[in-house]
Description:
Elements: H1 2-6, E1 14-15, E2 22-23, H2 36-46, H3 52-55, H4 59-75, E3 85-87, H5 88-105, H6 111-114, H7 120-135, H8 138-144, H9 149-165, H10 180-195, H11 199-206, H12 217-227, H13 234-264, H14 267-280, H15 299-311, E4 321-322, E5 328-330, E6 333-335, E7 340-341, H16 345-351, H17 353-356, H18 373-382, H19 396-413, E8 414-420, E9 439-444
Antiparallel strand pairs: 1-2, 3-9, 4-7, 5-6, 8-9
Organism: Podospora pseudocomata
Keywords: Heme, Iron, Metal-binding, Monooxygenase, Oxidoreductase
Amino acid sequence: MGEAVATALNKPASVNQWKLGLVWPDTLDLLSEFDGKRYRLQRRLIGPVYTASNVKRFEGAVDGVVAAAVARLKVIEGCGGGAGTVDLKEWMHIVAVECLGAVVLGWSPGYIKSGSDGGTSKQSYMGWKRKSLFGLFPAVTKVSLLDSGMGKRVGKWLGRFWADAWGVTFATPKGFKPFFTPVYQKVSKRITAALAPSQSAKAKVKKNKSPEVKEDLLTDLIQLHLSRPDEFTDNYLRRMAVTNFGAGHETLCATLTSVLAMIGSHAEVEARCFAEISSCLQGGPHKRRYDLEDVTKLRYTQAAIKEAQRLWPVIGMSLSRTVPEDGCVIGGYSIPAGTTVGCSPLGLHAFNEDVFGVDGLEYRPERWLIEDLERLRAMERSNLIWGGGGRTCPGRYLAEMIVFKVVTALLAEFQVEVVEMPEEGNMECYFMAMMSGVVVRLRERSR
């Protein structure tokens, strides 16, 4: 499966130069892990850290980011009077990275303050263009990974040639401000300090004065390592800490962008969401904080969010699997062992009339509010917005919390009007699919 090879975080431990067989190292790579047993172990280990009840502890960190983003959007040039416009994708990326920074590390990259993500969203998305292209040619990708002798030179040359030939080489833009560099540094520093306490910290413990412990997700991961060091190894710990950002910043950005773009481009949906938020939450329409418990009151808003995710899933290409040794039958067709099969989430969501109806291409939140429980269950089973089966998103509850709190707060504070929406065919979508080029006008409701 070429996409898994192309998206792997690490180079294989060894490559058979004649058969192009790959042997992968024992590390944590939840997206591209080939070893099913290893993957299941890793999911079981991190499971308790990402439960709904545990991530709820970090609700306050997300509230702080949302409040800062709302305040910044109110005073940013052109927005203070309610008539300014912003690039929706960039601002949703700003909010996504800031939320992850606050939850995982108790840290801010300074994107809200500067009003820019330093070009990281555009540059990262171009990286997906390269990965998607190489994923379509697994043999080329495998050759480019050869790491010894003549094979290494050939692989390096072929990788450069293939990228140049298909136009997937990109220069770093001026003013580029990456957030992964400080993330790596802070994660490494925190973990090193936690696993090898300083003498001063030891002295405080002896005096029954415990050193300050930060209440963030990294603390939970460190505690998991300390309690199960032989299973959740130092390598797994460091990988998982950074994976929160690697797996989350673009998926959250894509989700938030599609939700606000779809709601903002359907005036009747936007008005109904605001009315629900205003009437169902204590404190009125300008309540500054929305607790997770409020989610059960906001049925239409939740349906509007889910419907946007259905039409704009973050995975834009086929989710491939290899048919097992016994073969399988799909749609009445017998598929032999070893065959690669898959389906695009959008294809399943929009064109499966038996599940989502003949209007599957339409944005209609009401489809999730029907009383036919059997039909609802069928839609939920076919809805791959969070993955499916054993490959569901491990950070789903954290992502849902962030999406809910960001969307409700922005709709409460601003009327969101889409003023520029490129045709779908003009939006570049790769293995990672994102709405780009969407411009919105934010009208401050209090004005």
